[in-house]
Predict the structure.
Amino acid sequence: MSNTIEFLSKLHSFRDISKEELEQVAAYLKPKLLQPSEYLFQTGEAYHKIVYIVQQGKLEQYRQSGQILSLETGDFIGLANFMDASPYLSSTKAITEVKLLCLPATELQEFESLCPPLFEGFNRIIAKYIRDRGNNPRPVTSHALCLPARSIMKSPLATCGPSVTVLEAYKLMRQRKIGSLGVTNKANKLLGLINFVSIADAMLIHGAKANTPVLEVACKKSKIISPDTPMWQIEEIQHEQNLKYIIVAEDNEPIGIISQTDILHNLLAHQGLLFSEISNTTSFSELAIIYQKITKVASEALENNHRASTAVRNISEFHLALQRRCIELTLQKMETDGLGTPPTKYSFILMGSASRKEMLLNPDQDNAIILADNLATDKLWFQTFCEQVNTHLDEIGYVLCPGNIMAKNNMFHKTLSQWQQQIDHIINLPTKKAARWANVFFDFQHLYGDDELAATLSKHIIQELKQHPRLLKMMVEDDAEGEPAVGWFNRLVTRRDQSGKGKIDIKRNGLRIITDATRIYSLKHGIVSRNTVDRLRALVRQGVFNAGYIKSVRASFEELLDLLLEHQLDQMQNNQELDKLIDPETLSPLHHESLRMAMRTIKQFQEKLQVEFDVAEY
């Protein structure tokens, strides 16, 4: 049993579990041996009510899509089936002699509820399953993402010898204005990488002296890739391992380095022409013509980005560029018409998905305006301005908001002090209606004008909520009106109404729950980011959530966003009215399973939010 405990303690999923808890888990584990070519289970076979852990040997998993996955020491098998006891959707066969540890599902359910660290560990695995099942089947064909490492790396890699001191390395990086140095031996073989962070750690945490050789204290092993590694794979490695730099090497001899910024610049280089075209337009009709390219823009964004959230962010930048240019043309028109220039400072702001840079193919208008407090009597100028902006945005393709949440509406057209007074009122005297309004408005983001006005209002909201957080609890209650599309035994639940019968509203019953919960947590902890993925990362950095748990939430968000984006693209290409309703019966078995796992994770996220704000004293 001691060998089993030692084995479990080295696994990523069990790293935060105490020795006593490991002993409890180990007591229920039973060994199982597979011979080469022997199947553990085959497609369609009933669930064994066991989660398997590979202790030794290699297996292969054959999916219905034709994909073959290699399973090795430390991998879990059957965790997805554990969620609802569904039959196996793949076949798993031993390639070598394999030793497995078998954990009965009933005991695992008990441990999952009683041992939070184990729960976090399983969420990391679930996140990987969602990504593997949902995202890998789509082939990467984009020219940008298929570029090999040698095409985007900085070369040559700046290096130093192992005897170079910490101070010398620091001065060298400052002098050359670079962020890292490779450490190589006399044969030019890579020993590791140093950067400003590793030097700071060495001196401030480990007490290294300025004359200490870098190899002893500041040199860290770096991820090494071949020159032929495609950019999409490099991006995936950087994301999964949270790496800022990756070394490109041949026969362990460094030939270059790639940073996260290098990848971003290469992706942006493939999108610059369209933004230049937008900035050169001279009429609203030209903008409307460019708007019609949204299908092409969305298709290329999905093709050129390995993650749906990045693709959607790029689509949003297209929308934002069009809307900014629309405001510029409106200002030019008003001046030409003899109405003059803005009489005071203002900030034209966007709300909802636009503020989060999560717009899809046909967003409507959700906007407002913040005016400087020194506005005298010329309010008519801004009223005319807002009416024209809303009208011209509609002409371009951004339909008027059905709820009239637009800058031309006096309810969303106020001075900074008026906005502050309204926010103070709803925060101090919160109501259900105010909570719903806050879930819409509190995501605002500056689009045009003086961004200091928007920043001041944003800081005001966070400060007031910190002192009077009761509104947050009501915002949680408003979020609870949308339930994840998963029911008993974690099975998918579809709509029963005639308009969407048999379908799932991916936004209302999935994406919105994540964005609402993330917004509320961010407001509570003073996080100013608007984008959902950025907020999730910030919540991990501030220690609000475990990184493994947030990986599962983000993977679920990515999977639903990917499904919705492809669904709407298909509808637009077939001249159908766009909606957010997915029929799970039309999905492949892998996507169906991925959707179900994502909904389970979202349900847990919502429940965690409700429990935290229910027990808090508001």
User: Anything to note?
Assistant: The radius of gyration is 27 Å. The chain has four domains: 2-114, 116-139+469-618, 147-263, 271-467.
